[in-house]
Each structure stands twice: as structure tokens, then as C-alpha cells.
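Researcher: Last one for today. Full complex below.
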Amino acid sequence: MLELLFFLPIIGALLLLLLPERAARGGAFIAALLTLAVSLVLIPSAFGHSGAYGMLSSVTWVEAWGVHWALGLDGLSLVLTILTALVTAVAIAWTPARPRTYYVLFLLLEAFSLGTFLAADLFVFYVFWEAMIIPAYLLIAGFGGPRRAKAAIKFLIYSLAPSLLMLVAIVTLGYEAFLQFGSWSFSLPVLQHLVLPTSVQMWVFAGFAIAFLVKIPAFPFHSWMPEAYAESPAPVTAMLSAVLSKTALYGFLRIALPLMPVAAHRFAPALGVIALASILYGALVALTQRDGKLVIGYSSLSHLGLVLLGIAALSYTGLEGAVLQMVNHGIYATALFLLFGVVEERMGTRDLQAMGGLEARGPILAGLFLITVLTALGLPGLQGFAGEITILTGVYLVQPVWAWIAVISVILAAAYFIRLFQKVAHGTAPSTDQPGGRPEIGGMQIALVAPLIVLMFVLGLYPNPVPRAVSRPLKSVTQSVGVAATTRATATSEVAGK
Amino acid sequence: MNFPVINPLSVLPEIILLATSVLALFVALFLPERRGHLLNYLGMIGVLAAIAVLPVLWGKVEVGFGGAIVADHFAIAMNATILISALVAFLLGMREVEPGPDYVALVLWAAIGMMVLTSAVELLSIFLGLEVLSLPLYILAGFRRDRSTSKEAAMKYLLVGAFSSGIFLYGLAFLYGATGQVSLSGIQTAILQNFTSHPLFLELGAAFVIVGLAFKLALVPFHQWVPDVYEGSPTPVTAFMSVGTKAAAFGALVRILTVALPAGLVHWQPLIAFIAVLTLLFGNLAALRQTNMKRMLAYSGIAQAGYLVVAIAANSQMGIGAGMFYLVAYAFMNLGAFAVIAALSGKNEEGAEIASYRGLVYRRPWLAVAMTLFLLSLASIPPLVGFPGKFYILRAAVSSGGILLAVAIVVGTMISLYYYLRPVLLMFTHSEEASLFPEKAHWTAHVAVGAMLVGTLVLGILPGLLTGPLQHAVHAIYGL
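Model: Here's the assembly. Have a good evening.
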């Protein structure tokens, strides 16, 4: 069943090659919907088992190297799997009539991202982590804006080069398994039992952390981000921001923290500083950007910095908030990038100084955009707030100063997001406005974005399903990191009550 | 006088190749000159027949020529790689080199030399193999007599090659002088039993042997001939040379260093590790600046040889296994890349400039996609064969305590991303230029590209297919 989840998009991609060109979009959408359906069907099995994973399937891949083809599903991978499937389904059908290659690459990107979230063996994790970069690269290089070539190669090199450090870290873990258990292994449940000397932990943790920080991205490893986000087509940007960045944060939760707990404690202050720097830097740059898409891009940098801060706090509540905010960000960032993509298409520009008048000409589009913007800036009752407040609570309990600094970003977020909306919606329509085009959003696109909007309200008012789903995996993370799970604040449920 | 037992089975593949070459020369007498390319098919059949007998020999350890030649698992595995590169040389040679009896015979003889080199376990037969492989390659490098670059390549190769053979022979003489033995196992026994009167000569001999083979393996600082020769030689010959010679020299180096010279007693390991790091860093840095595809692959080949030597420096069973795996991986992806170049550029080599690959995917989609996969594999991106190869070597380096070697590999690979991916980007960039590669390639070139692609993909996804057999080859070296 887990294999099905991974192979469905791949089979879909192969079948697309047989379909006629104009049926490609429909075919890809169906494949993405089926994948989403399977991920929903798997919900009960994620919690079925008493072991580390609710569901684990493992086959020997390369016997001589101790490598297993192992996929595992627990609450943590489940929520991110569903997120990936949902975002892909919406994004893939968003733009009309692209060449078939586009949809094939999109489905491959989905499959490899799912593989990263499901991998229960570090070799498998690495293979997908790298493989995922190739379709993303080709999507940017093949379908991006005018400066796509440079953006694509920058994305590629920034993504691949640090991953190689991670490869050395993975091999080192396998060797440690050989030294301690007598046989090479890369299986996460096995590596869980390693007792690593601190020096080894530090090196290995650093290898993983650098690869993850570049992928999120976090300041100062983000310099690939502006170009890649700006030049990609809107649905691809949505995937980069909503899904690919989560694979890195997930890596912290799944691999770096539980396997190298001592190093996690040693590195936590550094991670915290990087997170705070990302939060503030992202917010300040977003405030001054003229390119609307980059306002959203830098807001992502800031918000994902907050997630990283929650992880760096190494408290249960911090981790809980981090996962919740990962899901939230995945949903509202997708909606932001996609809706802004429509606005850009209609107005023929992304320059905020030239944009305007959306409210009068496309009230439905403006309304949807407003809801999304309000979610993103953390309005209580909507989805973004629950995650932010949980993270801030978790951080405050451990590092009050961090929390105080991070709160500044919440204020700044309100400023840059409201500025973004004002520039787009108020004022007069730009001269570059496409004269023949309809100013309003299409019916199909409303239907596609509707589930995201609904989720913004549902998870805003009742976020509990996410923390509940991830409670067992996160408890085991906090156990390995050595933080008592007793500090668990009930912030989430309190927030939900308001 | 005592004549050694020859045992033709030990050199059965070599005999088949020799018979084919003689047949080709003989048939050529009765063949009109413009039908010369038919002999290429004869060469292919000969190579395929030699490949076909390898499984028969697998598992039997045939010793021949009074113990000078051994067709053990190691030799057979290396010979398979060599034969594949010879096959590709024929598949690609259809149009480009105006093949005649001389081309076919020279490729076959060079292949025989390479195979002898990997099966040789005595100093004399080792040197014999090295010379038999070198002489035909000198001629092949200059095969396009109408082009001055080709002539220049041949001359450079000859001078450097003769020089390195001399140094190598000197090293062998030292080893013999220090131990009084010619067989590799005899030298080992002598060293272990402390029969060496002159440890200094032993160390010198090891160093000279390493330097002599470093020329053939294109290791820094003995690499200067490589870019010119790779660029100047006809592409099929370059492909053959870049893989076959490396396989042969790697085989000889592994045999001499691990069998004859125990690392604890003869201190070659630091030298090898130093050369390896130097090679992979220099090769990768120099490749960054290339604008010609063949030169770029030449420098990348230098870097790849550096990874191979890291595997030897690990000085462990795992290291030898990793090196052999990497060699097979390198064979598939590198031969594939050269096959695409040959299929694109036809007779006049006009298409070897990287800039001319712009927009290739819109004109020759199949070749462009294949080239993309070969380059990604060379950059060791999963799920292509270069990745498990790199993984295996890292694994060997880490487990022999060479974490710095592992870091050097990673740094080298990071640098290589830039130059391997730049042509990929160009191929996917739209261009308005008129089609640059008008000539249609011969169908056999497409067969070569396809076959190498299958190898790159299948072994990339299922590396386990190769690790098992290679384990036997490693055991053969360690006498297990």
C-alpha cells in the first residue's frame, strides 16, 4: 500500500507519455487525485501498529551494503504526505494547457517528495532527496520566466552540493552501525539504537544540518531562493515553497534530532540564531520588495525561520507548533503563490508599484486573496495563528528572549502582507492590464483553491487533528533528545477554544 | 630445457580476439576498399564471442604460461569491462574513422594487451601486457592522418608513453632486485619472510611502479598528455582508451600493490592517497574551464581516476570492490557520453564544442536526453549508476578511517556539478540557430548509446546485480 502511494504518481507519469498532448493535464490531475485518495485511505494504518512506524514495508535492496528499500508511515510522515498530495493536486491542474513534459515532471516531483517523507532508510531518503531536485530543476529551466536558465542552475548547484556532505554523514552512520552492531545498516529504526560519541555526532549533525538549511532555505543559505521563486511558474514555486522546503524541516525532525541528540543540544543555540536571523531578515526584505512574488517568497523565509525556531527550542510544544506550522504554511503558501500568479497574469506585471485595482475588477479573486493573506499574517481564527502561537509558547518556555525577538516578526508580517494586499487590490488598474483577458479568476481555479481556503478555516478553528496525529512520533523525538514531554502546554487546544 | 605449461584456456578470450584480427587482415585482401567497414562487424563478432566465453571461464581459475597468467574472477571481471569498451569502439567506428582492417586489428590487439595486463601475475607478463596495449594505441591516436591534431596526439602519446614504460620497467627491476622474485605472490612471500636485503629498493620500486601506471591511469601530475590526446584522437578511440586503458592499469596496480606489496611493510599508501586527492581536485578544477566537450570529458576522466585511486588507497577488500564497481560504472557512463558525441559529430568532429549543444533537446531529443542522463550519472546523482559507485567508494574510504579522503571526494564532486550540469542546461535552452548536427549517425552508434544507457539505469537502480560477482573478484585478489 505504501509502495502504491509512491508508485502511483510514477505510473501516472509513464501513462501520460502514452496519452495525447491535450489529455495530459486531465490525466495528471486524475493521477494526483488518486494519490491524494490513497494518502487519505492510509490514515488509519499510520496509527495501527505499536512500533515506531504505524506501517513499515522493507525489502533488501543491496544486500552487500546493508541497504533496504524501506518505506514507513507514522503520524508525522502522514500529515506531510497528505499535504504533498493535496498541494500537488491543486498546483498541477492550476494552469491550463502546458506541454506534456510539464505534467510528467510534476508527477515525478510529487513521487520523489513523497518518497522523502516515507523513507525509513537513509539510503532511500538520500536517493529521493537528490532525485527530487532533478524534476524541480527541469521545471524551472523549461517553463520558467526570462531569466530561468540562471535561476535553475543556481537552484541545482545549491541543492546538490550540500547534499553531498549529507551523504558522507549517512555513510558514517552506516559505518557506526557496522562497528556497533556488526553489520552495515541505514535503517532508521536500527540507527535509533546507536550510541554515538559526541565528536561523531557533531560532524554528522553538521553534515545533515547544512543540507537541510540550504533546502529550507534559512538565512544566510537562501541566496538561490529569490531567483528560483521569481522565475518559476506559480505552481512550481508553490511546490518549492510548500513541499520541498518541508522535506528539509522534516529531515531535522526525523533524522538530525533523534539520531544525534547530544549534537542537537550543542547546535540548538546556533540553529536558534539562524532561525531568528531568517525570521527578521525575511520580514524586513519582504517589507521593501517591489516584486510581489518575492514579498511572498521572503515571507516564506521568515515563516519557515519560525518553524526552525520551534525545532531549535527542543521542547515538545516547540516541535508540535513546528509541525502544525509546516502544514499551515504548506496550505497558505500554495494559495498565496497560485492566486498571486493569477493576479500577475491578469495585470501583466509583478511590480507592486504598477499593480492595483483588483478589488473593483475581480472581487472574487481579491476576496480569496484577502482571506489567504489574513491567514498568512496570523489572524486569530485562521490557520496561521494556531501554529505561530504554539511555536512561540514552546520557545518562550525554553528561551524567552528568542520568543520576544520572534514576536517582532509577527508585527512585521502584518505590515508587509497588508502592504501587499493594498498595492494589489486598491488603487487604479495598471496600464499593462491585459485588455482582452477576464479580470476575474476562473471557475475551475475557484474549485481548486476552495479546499485550501476551507482548510484555512477548519485548521484555524480546530487545529487539533494535526498535533494529535504527530504526538507519538514527536514524543519519541523528545524522548531521544532527552527533553521531558511534561512541559507540553495545552496551547493548541486553548487557542482552538477562542 | 623445461617449457612451461601454456594452458590455452587461461587466455581463451585473447586467443579469440587474436584469431579475429588475423581473419580481418586476411579477409581484407579479398575485400574492395570501400567495403572496409564490413570488417568492423567482424570485429564486433569477435568481441562478442570473447564476451560469450567469459561466463564459461567464470568460476574456474585457469593458470597458464607456467603461472605467469591467471584467469581468475578478478581478471574476468576486468576483461568484461575492457571488452565492452572495445565493442563500443567498433560500434562507434562505423562512420567516423573509415574503418579498415588496420583499425579493427589495432583495436583488437590493444584489447589483448589490456586483458593480459589484468591477468598477469608475474612482473614480465605484466610488462608484456603493458607494451602490447600501448603500441596499437599510439597508432590509433594518430589514426586520422589528415588531421594535424590527431598526428600531434599520437606523437605526444608515444613520447610520454615510452617514458612511462621505462619508469615502470625500472620499478619492476627494483622489485626483482630487492626480492629476487618475479611472481607477485613470490615477492609478497619474500617481503613477509623478511628476505629483502634492500628495503629502500623495495620502496623505490613501489614508487616507480605507481608512477609508471599513473601515466596510463592519467593521474596528476602525470596527466599532461591526456587532454590533447583525448581531443585529438578520433572519438571512438578516445572512448576506448579512456575506459579500457584505465581498467587495465587499475587491474595491474591493484594486483601489484595488494598482492605483492603488503601495505604494512611497503609504504605506498600515503603516496597513493596523496596522488588520489591531488588528481581528483585538479581534474575537477581544470574541467571547469573547458569549452570543448572531449577536453572536458578528458579532465573529468582524470578526476574520475582520482576516485578510483581513493578506492585503492583504502587498502581493504571493500576498497577493491568499490574500485571495481566504480570502474564498471565509469565504463557505462563515460562510454555513453562519448557515444553521444560520436553519434552527433560524425566525421568532421565539428560538434565537439560545448556551445554547439545549445538547444539540442529540440533537435535530437533522444541523444540529448541520453547525454543528460550520462552527465548526471557522472555527477553521481541517483538513481543512476554513478551514485552507487560514489557511495561504495565513500563507504570504503570511511570504513578504512579515511574520512579526509571521503571529504576530498565530496569536495571534488561538488566542483564537478558545475561543469557536468552546464551542458545539460545548454541542451535545454532554446536556440534559434540552424541545426548544427546535420549528419545522421550510423545505427550502430545508437545501439551503443542505448546499451550504455541501459547499463547506467539498471545498475543505478539495482547495484546489487554487480556487488555479488565483484565480491568473488575481490576474494580472488586476496586469495580467499
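The radius of gyration of chain B is 21 Å. The longest strand of chain B covers residues 62-64.
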